[in-house]
Specification:
mainly alpha, 7 helices
């Protein structure tokens, strides 16, 4: 009789234990109505299912799967239009940071973009603003600091994972559910 490899059995045991813990978290979030707005429960479910898929993927696909899961969650929660605004404005901000120019010009470009976005934000109530702010407010400063001496920009997959992680969509608890598309 052939038994599975011991490494596979230990990996399967760890997977089962972590999946049980995630199931309990999902159960308690739903049962006790933690963050009673429906999008939070959806994000927890996306994260739990994403974990189960991510665990068994080959390592070379994991980062891209995480990025697709995060982007899919953003689209699911805020809708296509708001997700498009988040991705478009985010791409522009990241572009300002990795622009092949002197660092001082990049800082000025990010500062000018921040002023323009702040001015535009004052006249709008769109639900993508809290999500965009939670993704870029402090991370943009760190990226700008880190790329100041780098000759090449960081890889796209790492940049996406850094700026648009799955949990940032939970910042929507700052706005009423009726505003979400």
């Amino acid at each position: 009789m052939n038994f599975p490899h011991p490494t596979f059995l230990s990996r399967l045991g760890a997977f089962g234990f972590l999946t049980l813990q995630l199931a309990l978290i999902v159960f308690f979030v739903r049962g006790f109505e933690i963050e009673s707005q429906e999008h939070f429960f959806a994000v927890i479910c996306f994260a739990a299912v994403g974990f189960m898929v991510h665990w068994w993927l080959p390592s070379r696909w994991r980062l891209w799967f995480f990025n697709l899961l995060s982007l899919g969650t953003i689209v699911f929660v805020v809708g296509w239009l708001n997700a498009g605004w988040i991705l478009g404005i985010g791409a522009g901000l990241i572009g300002c940071c990795v622009w092949p120019a002197r660092w001082s010009y990049r800082v000025l470009a990010v500062g000018a973009a921040a002023l323009l976005l702040t001015n535009y934000r004052l006249d709008q109530e769109a639900p993508f603003w809290p999500v965009l702010a939670s993704m870029f407010m402090f991370r943009l400063i760190v990226l700008l600091f880190e790329v100041r001496r780098e000759a090449t920009p960081p890889p796209l997959a790492l940049t996406l994972a850094y700026f648009m992680p799955l949990q940032n969509i939970s910042s929507l608890s700052l706005i009423p559910l009726s505003c979400i598309a």
